[in-house]
Amino acid sequence: MADDHPVVILGVSNMFENESDIHLLSAAVTISELFETLRQVPCDILITDYSFEGDSEPDGMHMLERVRRMYPALKIVLLTAHDDIVVVRQAMRLGVLGFISKSSGEFSALPMVVRSVMRGERYLDPTTSKAMLEYMLENNPGAQLLSAVKLSVREVEVLRLFVSGMTVTEIALQTKRSLKTISTQKKKAMIKLGARNDIELINAFGRMGGTHRQPDPGSDPT
């Protein structure tokens, strides 16, 4: 992990203490320490800030490009207060898999994010994901956004059936998958789309070009 605020590193370290499958191997508070650490301590995932105030070495995109060039297999999660949509888009283009805004209050989701990124999945915190969708709709309203938010094929299938009017239980029966699996896929899609409830989920999918239905107040809430 790399962050110029030691208190953030301490908070993340404490969060991982009870996670048996996640180990914080080392931490750096400057960019030079970051690259020295990466050289000495091989790791799977780098959790890093975007800006290192007062650092003598270039931060931001220059730092991320350098990491990608030197360690192309390293998976990166940005944990930063710099949540401007332009920054998020450029970071994702560089291959950053996870993005959590420090203002989003999603710190508690970090262990889940690490596991998702380890599987090669992308993650945007709900606030940033919603802002990204709104930006793309404003600038390219006719675009199909499924690939942009990295919904899996099965997540798209679950959303399509749910938006068509089926309950989670009915989707599980039709697809011959467990209720727990369908619920999990629906919840992951909600996170990626920045939807906080079924109505926002249906509306988001409708804006992306999927079929739209009016939400049924009595539908299966799972």
TrEMBL record:
Keywords: DNA-binding, Phosphoprotein. It comes from the Bacteria. CDD domains: LuxR_C_like, REC_NarL-like. Transmembrane segments: none annotated. Signal peptide: none annotated. PANTHER family: TRANSCRIPTIONAL REGULATORY PROTEIN RCSB, TWO-COMPONENT RESPONSE REGULATOR. This is Response regulator. It comes from Paraherbaspirillum soli.
